[in-house]
Amino acid sequence: MAKVPPMLEGGRLVAGFLRARARGRPFILSHLVTGRCNARCPTCMWRMEDVAGGGLEAQTAGELDTTAVEELYRQAARAGLVQLVVWGGEPTLRRDLPRLLWGAKEAGLLVTLISNGHLLGRRWPELRGSVDTLILSVDDLGEAHDQMRGIPGLFARLEMLVGRLAEDPLKPRLLLNTVLSAANPGALERVAPLAKRWGAGLYFCPMETGQMQSEGFDGRMADLALPADELRRAAAGALRLKAAGYPLLSTERYLRLLERDPELTRYTCRVPRAILTIEADGSVRHCLRRDRPLASYEQIAGGAGLEAFYRSPRYREMAREAESCTACNNPDVVETSWLWDLRPAMLRKVLALASL
Ligand code: SF4
C-alpha cells in the first residue's frame, strides 16, 4: 500500500474532525489494546499488574479478542471517528496487532501506535505500512532511559529502530513522548536534541495528576508527580527549547499557561466529547471513575451501538461534568479541548503535525 502524502492525510484529519464536531461526536478512538507490558515504568498507571506477561499473545483473559477489536474499529469508522490511537500496556505484545491495524486502515481510520519500541524492530516487517504515526516513549537517554523502563538495552534498540525507519519508504511520522516526573528531572533538555537528530516531533506530559484523583486509583505513585515549581520550570524550559528551534509540539499557549498556572485551572475540558477511550476489556472509560465504566463492549458494539451510547444519560452527564473538571494538566487534554473549541491555532497545529 502506497504512503498517503502528508498534506492529504492532514486534510483528511481536519475534514473528519470538522464533520464529527458538527455532529457533536468524538473524532478520536483511544484504545488500550492490552493491559500487559514488558516494561516496568514507575510512573505507569495503565499496566495491569496481574497479567504482566511479557510474551507475544493474541489476547489474554480480560482483553477483547481479534474479532471483537476488528468489529469495534469498523463500528468506530462508521460512527465518524477519524483517528485510532492504539496503546496499552504495550501493544506490540499482541500477536494479532498487524491484523488489527490493517483492519483499522481498511475501515478508513488513521492509525497512531504508541510503543516503548522494545519489540518493534522484530515486528516491523508485519506492521510497516499500517501505521501513520508512531509515538515512541522516551523518558531519558541511554542507561537512564533503560532504568526508567526496566528494560536493559532498550535505548540502543530504539537507536537501531529509528535508523532502520529512516531508510524505509513506508516510514510513519515519528513522535517522541516524554513523561516528566520526579524520576527524570531536566529530561526535556536531554531528549529535545535527540528528537531533532531523529527527525521526530516531541511531546511531553507531566505525570498524570488527573488520574491520581480517580476513584479506583490508589495513589501509590503520587509522590512522583512534579510539584508546581518544577512544572513551572519545565514549562519555561520547554518554551526556551521551542524558541531555539527544537521540535517541541506543545503550543506556546499551552506552555505559557502551564508556566503561569501549573495546576491548570483555567481551561474547559472537552475530552469526553472529543475522545472515546476504550479499555482492554472493551468497556468505555469514565475518566474520573475508572472503576465504573460508562458502558460495556456489548453495549457499544451490539444493537444500536455507538449512537445509542452517545445519547445515553451517563455519557451526556460525563461530558457536562468534564466542563467543570480541570484535574488533568497534560497537553493532550488541554489542547484537544481547545481543538474542540475550534481555536484556529489548534487547526493549524493539526495540519503542521501532518506535514512532519
Ligand atoms: S480534566 Fe477532563 S479528561 Fe481529565 S479527568 Fe477531568 S474530565 Fe477527564
Note the topology.
Blueprint: H1 6-23, E1 28-32, H2 66-78, E2 83-87, H3 97-107, E3 110-115, H4 120-127, E4 133-137, H5 142-149, H6 154-166, E5 173-180, H7 187-198, E6 201-206, H8 209-212, H9 228-243, H10 252-260, H11 271-274, E7 275-278, H12 297-301, H13 305-310, H14 313-322, H15 331-340, H16 344-354
Parallel strand pairs: 1-2, 1-7, 2-3, 3-4, 4-5, 5-6
This protein binds iron/sulfur cluster.
The site of iron/sulfur cluster has 11 residues, from loops.
Q: Can you describe this structure in just a few lines?
A:
This protein has one domain: Aldolase class I (TIM Barrel), CATH 3.20.20.70. Helix content is 44%, strand content 11%. Strands 6-5-4-3-2-1-7 form a 7-stranded parallel β-sheet.
Structural features, described:
The chain is of the alpha/beta class and 356 residues long. The chain has a single domain, classed as Aldolase class I (TIM Barrel, Alpha-Beta Barrel), CATH 3.20.20.70. It is built from 16 helices and 7 strands. A 7-stranded parallel β-sheet has the order 6-5-4-3-2-1-7. Helix 2 runs parallel beside helix 3 and helix 9 runs antiparallel to helix 10. The longest helix has 18 residues. The radius of gyration is 19 Å and the shape is globular. The two termini are 20 Å apart.
